[in-house]
Amino acid sequence: MDRRNNTNVPYFILFGLTDSEVLQQFLFILFLLIYLITLLGNAGMILIIRLDLQLHTPMYFFLSHLSFLDLSYSTVIIPKTLENLLTSNKNISFMGCFTQMWFFVLFSVTEFFLLSSMAYDRYVAICNPLHYPVVMSTRLCHTLISGSYMISFTESSVILLFMNSFHFCGSNVIYHFYFDLTPILTLSCTDTHDLELMIMICAGFNVLMTLSTISFSYISILSTILKINSSSGKHKAFSTCASHILGVTLYYVTTTFTYVKPKKSYSLGRDQVASVLYTMVIPMLNPLIYSLRNKEVKNALIRVIQKREDSKQ
Asked: Which ranges in the chain belong to alpha helices (H)?
């Protein structure tokens, strides 16, 4: 993508979160630690699910893809952020900017639809347990995953094509730590109304479709749980959904707060905090959320370790 014909600005400058050297050093250590935990947690989750045959179920199939997405879009954002915190040169090329944006939109939108697929999986497991193996077939699971990627691929590509026609003839400083949609729209000399409208339509579609699926699933699940007579049965049924509910709440609140609003309401401080949460903190927390309360994952980890020790002996 050659942007030089459309702008007088040869590159962008990612201002980051702060210009204080002391804070930059602190944030570098903090973000590096978060990234290492994210890598270890998500890669470990994928590895455990792959190695343990008892976890080869639709629920953990979706969970392995969630770990892949968290790992992917964290890797799209954090390494460049760490580099900018260490060096005084915060330049990023047009190709680098739009490549980062395309991959970030791809992975983040896919996660919306993946979370709704996970909710549907829990709905079938609790409300229709006898039909679960038939309904949640391997074919349906792969169709849901493929559809999620196709929708996100289309949306990210359309956004990129729109932005390819923009002119940037003023400031080239992006007051953010990565190439996000809202900050870059404020720098454009071109009328961005059409793109803003399209982004809000896409974001509204994503939230409406996925949130309606999640809401329907959990209303049905709650209704089914309330009909269970034993308290132990209710607790067991609810425990299978608690982690997903927490993960969905964190992700939807932060992303909806950031993107489902007009450009004029953009606030540097509030939006950056929200961005740190869903690009760094949530991908780090998801493996902990889905494993700490999950006995199956803990038992699988023990089995994998024992199997490795037995093979050595």
From this structure: 21-51, 58-86, 94-127, 132-135, 138-163, 181-185, 193-226, 231-259, 268-276, 282-292, 295-312
DSSP E strands in the chain: the ranges are 12-14, 91-92, 173-174
DSSP characters over 218-250: HHHHHHHHHT--SHHHHHHHHHHHHHHHHHHHH
d(CA 211, CA 13): 36
What stretch of H or E contains 63?
A: helix 58-86
Q: What is the per-residue pLDDT across 40-75, written as a single tens digit (0 to 9) for each?
A: 999 999 998 888 888 888 999 999 999 999 999 899
Q: Each residue of 127-183: pLDDT tens digit?
A: 888 999 999 999 999 999 999 999 999 999 998 888 877 777 767 777 777 877 777
Alpha-carbon distance 227 to 304, whole Å? 37
- Nearby residues of 198 by Cβ (< 8 Å), 6 or more positions away: 158, 159, 162
The whole-model pTM stands at: 0.86
- Amino acid identity for residue 231 in this structure: S
CA-CA distance, 161 to 25, in Å (whole number)? 37
Core vs surface per residue 72-87: b (16+ CB within 10 A) or e: bbbbbbbebbbebbee
**Under 8 Å between Cβ of 239 and 290:** no
HSE value, Cβ hemisphere, 13 Å, CA-based, for 116: 20
Q: Is 208 helix (H, G, I), strand (E, B) or coil?
A: helix
Pairing mode of beta strands 91-92, 12-14: antiparallel
3-state secondary structure of 136: coil
Count other C-beta atoms under 10 Å from residue 298's C-beta.
Answer: 13
- The sign of the dihedral angle between the CA atoms of 47, 81, 99, 283 is positive
Residue type at 106 in one-letter notation? L
CA atoms within 13 A on the CB side of 254: 20
